[in-house]
């Protein structure tokens, strides 16, 4: 498995309208990923950072070909469907993507638990 990780920082608007932000986030994920069958799953983690948390989003793939297929599919859909792209770009109102990375493995149990 490979994981494409995005790190988001909520905007001031999101911070000022938290209930609306979380509602938008929960509605966006199923809408956004509906047509991307190469995505095996998603997960989320929050990190406290001052007054606004950082949000880490992991998107799971089988291999590098699946990540390339995903990126191409997003670009094609954005180009072919202006209404979809307009809705996708609502993200700029809610968060800033401050980091992207590819993780090559999931969490490992090393036996250090107490």
From TrEMBL:
The protein's name in its UniProt record: NIPSNAP domain-containing protein
